[in-house]
Amino acid sequence: MDPDKESEGESALRGAHGGRGFSHAPVLLKEAIDFLAVKRGGTYIDATLGLGGHSSAIASLLGPEGRLIGFDKDTRALEMAGQRLAAPEGRQQDWPEIVLHHASYAELAERVAPGSADGVLADLGVSSMQFEDAGRGFSFQADGPLDMRMNPHAELSADQVVNQFDESNLADLIYEFGEERRSRRIARAIVRARPIKSTAHLAQVVSAAARPMNQPRGKGIHPATLTFQAIRIYVNRELEDLRALLASAPQVVKPGGRLVIISFHSLEDRMVKDALRDGARDGVWEPLTKKPVIASEDEIAENPRARSAKLRAAVRMELRRRGGKR
Ligand SMILES: C[S@@+](CC[C@H](N)C(=O)[O-])C[C@H]1O[C@@H](n2cnc3c(N)ncnc32)[C@H](O)[C@@H]1O
User: Fold this and answer.
1) 227 alpha carbon to ligand 1 midpoint, in Å?
2) pTM
3) Which of 36, 44, 68, 72 has most ligand 1 atoms within 8 Å of CB, for mutation?
């Protein structure tokens, strides 16, 4: 092979990083593509389209017989990913079928035929587009409304949780989904400060209640980090949805197909790890990652979001007959 000529895979990875005006860098892109073992003509599911970074790299490897099925709860993300996944100039004849669903990946089994996928990828959590848009209310670093909904049509928003939930429910969810030890103190401060009008107001109330006496400003994580994480996970039913995805993936992925999941906090990673361990025990998944794959220092330097990413992958095994031959 001509060493100066870039391979299709390399060009896919480069294309996924840029070239159409997006600054978002997909996390662990090369690793995700490698573990998916993307093959021409295959059917792949991107459960979390986001800005279509991983998807565009997958699509460019599939060819005209291939198919990419994408999910996102966020209509804005779907719109942007849809634009990005249109066949590039000169590749119309070589581009896969693209099918996009405005739906939760919890609906995977209802929307995708059993045993039809060669691979499923999920890059969990919020996208940089959602996080950086103050109007979405995900960030404590910018002032915005208390929203935090990935799906803008969902009924529950952060405002209801923060301003209407009773103190003990609030404390429980901050503890459960943020693993925040100071959850009771924080919940009490939130209830006393009501009505809380914005993300900056919430961050200030939580910070005052949560900062440990011995932690000076500017050291360690922001004192509101875990509370914001907890409210976001609760509002978006993130762990319920992940549970449903992990339960339905074995039905949808064909034998020999791959499951690749990138998670960003320990609650998610634990669920993925346990599902793959149980799947190995039951002859459903053969894990490919003994330990989670993490980002290189170079990637973290370029994209700080990669710092907490953990990738786990598995191959779908043939179903063993229960009870053996009759
Ligand atoms: C980290 S981003 C994905 C980024 C994407 N891999 C890329 O390269 O651009 C996660 C995306 O998943 C979506 N999402 C999160 N939970 C979801 C769910 N349960 N169902 C469907 N989409 C979900 C979010 O709205 C967000 O757009």
Assistant:
1) 21
2) 0.91
3) 72
